[in-house]
Structures are given as structure tokens and as C-alpha cells.
Specification:
heterodimer, A: about 260 residues, 11 helices, B: 3-stranded antiparallel β-sheet
Chain lengths: ~260, ~130
């Protein structure tokens, strides 16, 4: 056999849901970086207004990453099998790194007390989403929590970070591109795990559908708010949200 | 493929020293894979080059590349992952019914033909 596609499905899952795979994957794009970007990448001058908008956006990224860090770590306890637990452990490391590099970027931009600034500027809808996600985790609702975190939140972050990286200053863009590479794993895990669950137990679908209805407007509000701060034209917002819409549609949920 | 030395076709089985390393590690082709679906070895074979995709371990990098946007064209051994939009590459021509893996987002996919466009697509197989 000479092709990775020749692997047995279970052997594939054992391979990708391992720390060994994760180590070698992140080594490929994080090696040589410091705080998520190459040390030689220079900051460019920014107007006070642009800097202020970027600080607000990064503060909200921190809220999302903190939610994902707390959510993923809590989910390890209720994960149904070893592979899911190991994968979530790698996700916890990813989320902690994201939070760290965004906080560091805030300090780079002259924010003296990032914790206070994140609290001050955090989007209300994102905070509500975070609270609800952690309630689902505390309630040990595996399917609902995975849906909220690895499908909804991660899809939103994947789309927003990818879009922001196209227009961001060079340092922020490099940080975001590295984070997006991690997010690919997270959205894939969420969609596949939930897809397997729903296929095996269709009654889960209605419960997840209710969660989606409950959280959908929070996701959309957070997306609108971030896009506004980034200066994205309103007619582009739908394009950014497409990853989320497509993902829930593949799982059989409408928006 | 739109540009770059990403892959080249060969008439017979691909001869690549990296294939030997992967072959030793992986064993026999599993059911549903492009190789298993081509028992007589009639499909065109491709020697895959590393296209600079750095999100998977080195030994798997040549099986993936970035989608370059609207001007990009897929080769007969390529499909786009619907979950994460990375281009998945096989060492054989892909046909409907083949099962492929997207390692960057850890998805198992089945190749289908879009009836409207005639193009090959990948659907997630949960």
C-alpha cells in the first residue's frame, strides 16, 4: 500500500486522534514562530482608530478562545472513548495557545491590562454563548456541548479568522493563519463526531435542533458585531457565515 | 491543476522511495480505498510531490494541497474536502465510490459525481 487513503477507517482515526499526529502537524507550521508569528515579521504603523478596532476584535477572540478552552477541558471528562479524550486534550493545548497569543498581541498593541480590557469590550452575545456552552458541558450533555463548541463556535471562528487574516496587519495575519490551521482539526472533529452520533441515534437530532435554534441568533449577532468592527461590508457577512451554515446543513439542521 | 510541479502521472505503478516507506507502515489497502477499487491496476497512477502543505506530518503532506481559489483546477486524482476546503490527492485517478481521508480536518469522505456539473465531489461519510 502506498497511499494514505488505503488505511482502514479505525486505523485512520487512531492515527489522527493522537498526540503523535498533533505534535508532527503543529511542528510544521509553528516551528520557528514566537507568540504565533515569525520573529522577523514587523509591525506596521496603525491609526489610533484602526488600533482601537483591532483591540476590540482581539478582545472578542479572547472570549471565544477562553470559552473553547474551558469547554474542551470540561468535555474530556464526559468524552465517550479514549480517542475523543486524547483529541480533546490536543484541542485544549490549541485553545490555550490561541488565548495566549491573542493576549500577547493585545499587549503588543499597547493594552496594559488585557484581562480588564477583554471584560470591558466583550460582546454580550458571545458572553451569553460562553455561559450557555459551559452549562451544556456541566450538564454532561456530550452531543449538545460538542455541537455548541466544535460545530457552532469553531465554525464561526474558522470563518471569521480566515476572513480577517486576508485584511489584517502582517503580525495579526500570521497569528490568525496559524490559529485557522488548528481550527481545521476542531471543526472536523465536531462535525464527524456529531454526524456519527446522529446517524446512530436519530432521536438526538431533535434535541440538537433545539440547541441550534437557541444559539443560532447569538452566533449571528457575534458574527455581525465582529464583521462591523473589521469594516466588512454588510453584504459580505453572509459569505463569512457560510462555513457555519454549510456545516449545520451537512448535519441536517437548517438555519 | 493550475500550476506548479504538484504531481506527475505515470503509466505503471508509482515508483517513489517515499512510497516504500509509507507502504511498509500501512499494510494492505482497505476496502473502499481507490487502490482496493482498482484491483486490476487499470487507473492512471500519479507520483505526488510535496506541494508545501504543512498542516499534517511530513510523511502525509504530499496527499494534500491548498485550494488556490476560483482559478484553481482539480486533477483527476483530486477532490476538495467540503468540511475544511483542502484539496485531497490520491496516487490514483479518483472515481465515484472511492473512500478518501482528509487528515487536516480528520474527515472520512466518499467520492461522488455531481449530476449537474459532472465534476467529482467528496461527501462526508460519518
Amino acid at each position: 500500500m502506498t497511499d494514505v487513503h488505503d488505511l482502514e477507517p479505525q486505523a485512520f482515526l487512531e492515527e489522527v486522534h493522537s498526540f503523535e499526529f498533533w505534535f508532527q502537524a503543529v511542528e510544521g507550521y509553528l516551528s520557528g514562530t514566537t507568540w504565533g508569528h515569525r520573529p522577523g515579521t514587523a509591525d506596521v504603523p496603525m491609526s489610533p482608530e484602526d488600533r482601537d478596532r483591532l483591540v476590540t476584535v482581539l478582545c472578542n477572540y479572547c472570549v471565544g478562545e477562553a470559552a473553547a478552552l474551558e469547554g474542551a477541558s470540561g468535555l474530556i471528562v464526559i468524552a465517550p472513548n479514549r480517542l475523543a479524550k486524547v483529541f480533546l486534550a490536543t484541542q485544549v493545548a490549541d485553545e490555550a495557545r490561541h488565548l495566549e497569543v491573542f493576549y500577547h498581541r493585545l499587549r503588543d498593541l499597547g493594552v496594559a491590562d488585557p484581562e480588564r480590557e477583554v471584560e470591558r469590550r466583550a460582546s454580550r452575545s458571545l458572553q451569553t454563548f460562553r455561559r450557555r456552552l459551559l452549562e451544556l458541558v456541566a450538564g454532561k450533555d456530550w452531543e449538545a456541548a460538542i455541537f455548541a463548541q466544535n460545530v457552532i463556535l469553531e465554525s464561526l471562528e474558522f470563518a471569521v479568522f480566515q476572513d480577517h487574516a486576508r485584511t489584517a496587519d502582517p503580525v495579526t495575519a500570521e497569528i490568525l493563519r496559524g490559529v485557522v490551521k488548528d481550527e481545521r482539526r476542531h471543526i472536523g472533529f465536531g462535525e464527524n463526531e456529531l454526524g456519527r452520533r446522529v446517524a446512530g441515534a436519530p432521536h438526538i437530532r431533535s434535541r440538537i435542533g433545539r440547541i441550534q435554534q437557541e444559539l443560532d441568533h447569538l452566533v449571528r449577532e457575534a458574527l455581525e458585531e465582529t464583521a462591523r468592527h473589521l469594516g466588512t461590508p454588510p453584504d459580505e457577512h453572509e459569505r463569512i457565515g457560510r462555513a457555519y451554515v454549510e456545516s449545520v446543513a451537512r448535519l441536517g439542521f437548517g438555519t | 491543476m493550475s500550476d506548479g510541479p504538484a504531481l506527475s502521472a505515470s503509466d505503471g505503478p508509482a515508483v517513489d522511495e517515499r512510497d516504500v516507506a509509507v507502504a511498509v507502515e500501512l499494510g494492505e489497502p482497505a476496502a473502499g480505498s481507490p487502490a482496493a477499487n482498482d484491483p486490476r491496476g487499470e487507473r492512471q497512477r500519479f507520483v505526488l510531490d510535496d506541494a508545501g502543505f504543512d498542516e499534517v506530518p511530513k510523511k502525509y503532506r504530499r496527499f494534500y494541497r491548498k485550494w488556490k481559489g476560483p482559478g484553481d483546477r482539480l486533477a483527476p486524482n483530486e477532490v476538495v474536502c467540503p468540511v475544511c476546503k483542502v484539496v485531497i490527492r490520491s496516487s490514483r485517478t479518483l472515481l465515484p465510490g472511492d473512500r478518501v481521508y482528509c487528515m487536516p480536518c480528520m474527515s472520512r469522505l466518499v467520492v461522488v459525481r455531481n449530476e449537474e456539473t459532472g465534476q467529482l465531489e467528496a461527501h462526508v461519510a460519518y
